[in-house]
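Q: What does the assembly look like in three dimensions?
Context provided by user:
Components: two
Sequences:
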Amino acid sequence: MPRIATIVLLLAAAAFPLVMQSLEQAYYISFASRVMIYAMAATSLNLILGYGGMISFGHAAFVGAGTYTAGVMIVEGVPSALIGWPLAMLLSGVLALAIGAVSLRTRGVYFIMITLAFAQMIYYLTVSMKAYGGDEGLNLPGRSTLPFADMKDDTSFYYAVLLLLALSLLLLQRLVASRFGRVIEAIRENETRMEAIGFPTRRYKLACFVIAGAFGGLAGALLANHGNYINPSILHWTQSGNLMIMVILGGVGYRYGGLIGALILLGLEEFIANHKIAWIADAYPNYQQHSLLGVGIILLIIVLYAPQGIAGLFKRKGAGHG
Amino acid sequence: MSGILILEQSLNGLQFGLMLFLLAAGLTLVFGIMDMINLAHGSIYMIGAFLAATLVQATGSFTAGVLLAIPATALIGMLLEVSILRSLYTRDHLSQVLATFALILISNEVVRIIWGSDIALGTPQALSGPVELIPGLFYPSYRLLIIGVGLAVALLLYFIVAKTKVGMLVRAGASNREMATAMGVNIKLLFTLVFGFGAGLCAVAGAMLGPIFAVQVGMGDNILILAFVVIVIGGIGSIRGALIGSVLVGFVDTFGRAFMPHLLREFLPPQFASAIGPALASISIYVLMAAVLFWKPQGLFPARG
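A: Here is the predicted structure of the complete assembly.
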């Protein structure tokens, strides 16, 4: 059954641009690409947050490092995605290795705070990069290029993003189901015991952290291409918060948690901003400028009353993490 | 660089550090006693500043406006604690981070709806000019007032925490909450009071810093992170740690901004130095925090024995 659902989902995603083009709603192709990119970023965070139980408050640093790597490569005249995107993954992975090596020595609140601190360092580093726009960011001359597709076309870009998202989801799924994934989940449940029976727990956690960082970097590279700009705001700490919101909304430690969360959060913002609801507009005409208020209230309600997230609502009681 | 410049920057560092302390003191108690991460602390600082600006305009007096804003903000803080935050104490840190992150989004938008994106709050007329502290050193009198207020509040806080019965209960709660409850301390009530007090301190900081930075939506988002850096450096739950951490962060930040570009110019090409100097200055406090966490994971003055 789940396999059929996956195939149906993939087919629907593949048909989406064709439908939108025939409805002359091309804007939504770009919007869907954005959702999928954030889904990838949130899914990578879900790997450490949900499966690994490591509450990292600095994931924006890895996404941002990917964004800047891809952007800088384009600016410096190496637009090939086949170089830029893997390089973004590599650099973000190395960054995660460095940050994780220090941060994973701490736990609990201190881990949250130290990942936040490192992310702030990277944020200020990008702000200082005057050659690449400093705090105002930089518009990119064009997208990364692929040999077989014209990436300037939003539909081609959509399919590239879809392919990469599907591949990363598949890979992360395999990873979670593997021995490595079981060890990571077991460490989340009881680290002391895992250590006692001989697992080098910190090394496992670090590996998990690096993988998540690399996929965050890939999402970041796609993000640079999607909007055709790089900007330090992608690394602001509230972005880390937004990614966490997506994971929580979708479901911590659920396979499609990141995807569902990104869809709901971005969809909600999009809906509030672009669809006027008459009865609210009557009461308060400018309500659409305050879409974050709605997001905040919904998030608060979910955290208080549905801590398992949206995916958790559809799970049978007692079913474990998927 | 001259001695006067160093003295001036020291005063700036002290001034910023003391204001950070007002934010960090409330935050560290909330964190220490209830093991609660409250990201909404920065929003209370923002609300305090907006209330102060409004009340200063309404009363026509800076002093009256600020003094009225303090209890008003404390009341809002206590309402927030009783209605929402209280139910989060028993939840994990992740839920606390997200729920209070949601409160940031909500309060930013609510403030925007009520007041708009920003509001004017000027320095009081009598304190707009500089004073000559020692020959050659002119220092804005308003900044001196901030230092004075900061020192007074720090003293008051020290007196309350170290010498009064309520302070004793707060310290007991911070070092061991279960034991304090077992000994008959009404932690719930105590905590609502502590929260209100912390909110009041936020209002003081917001009102005093308002004329220097701008009173605008989102003003709490960045200073909140600094306050967290302070309490992690100082040791969660420790007032003394918060004071020392604040002054440390205030000095490192101010001196970094003032002198780092000059320092780098000594051995780097000037263009590069002026570009990377401010970044290194911004980063320095986070390096400080990472270093403290690396060698003293519980902070400099751990509250729990």
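Follow-up: The longest strand of chain B covers residues 130-134.
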